[in-house]
Amino acid sequence: MENTNLNSIVEEVKVPKKKGGARPGAGRPKGGTNQVSINSLLESLEKKTNGKRYEEILMEDFIKARTNNDSQLVIKYHNLILNKLMTHVTKIEVTDSQETIDAKQLAFSEALAKLTGIKQE
Predict the structure, then answer these.
(1) CA nearest to 81, candidates 100, 66, 99, 91
(2) What is the largest CA-CA distance in the chain?
(3) Which of 35, 73, 99, 119 could form a disulfide with 65 if both were Cys (CB 3.0 to 4.6 A apart)?
(4) Which residues contact residue 2 at a Cβ distance below 8 angstroms, ignoring those fewer than 6 apart?
(5) In 3D, which of 54, 108, 45 has the Cα closest to residue 80?
(6) Of 65, 49, 53, 58, which is closest to residue 82 (Cα–Cα)?
(7) What pTM was estimated for this model as a whole?
């Protein structure tokens, strides 16, 4: 009799159907050529603009934004251009004098002493 009750309880519990994951036949077929690449986009743009390169178009649009005093758009262009250029800009080397190094060491040791409660000598 207990076994019958257990079976009825198990029947009442419904397991949710599995959702998501890979499905047969889904996705781009192997060897498919409908991928978009940056190079193909740039080549297509160059053809449609009579050989004008993307960089030229970008600079022209940037100059138009400046000429029209569109400060929000100018800022966006600056961010776009600087984000691209900053990876190629020469690294900036910072050198500290011995005085600066000593001052930093002292400040660090004072801060560490306050945090740990250790008195400085």
Answers:
(1) 66
(2) 89
(3) 73
(4) none
(5) 54
(6) 58
(7) 0.41
Residue boundaries of the structural domains of the chain: 37-88
Contact indicator for 45, 54 with CB cutoff of 8 Å: yes
User: 63 and 48 in contact (C-beta within 8 Å)?
Assistant: no
* Cβ pair 81, 73 in contact under 8 A: no
- pLDDT score, position 52: 92
Count Cβ atoms below 10 Å from residue 25 Cβ, excluding itself. 5
pLDDT in tens, 3-62: 556 666 656 666 666 677 777 877 777 776 667 788 888 889 899 999 999 889 888 998
Contact 104, 96 (CB under 8 A): yes
Query: Dihedral sign, CA of 89, 90, 91, 93?
Result: negative
User: Tokens representing 103?
Assistant: 């001052």
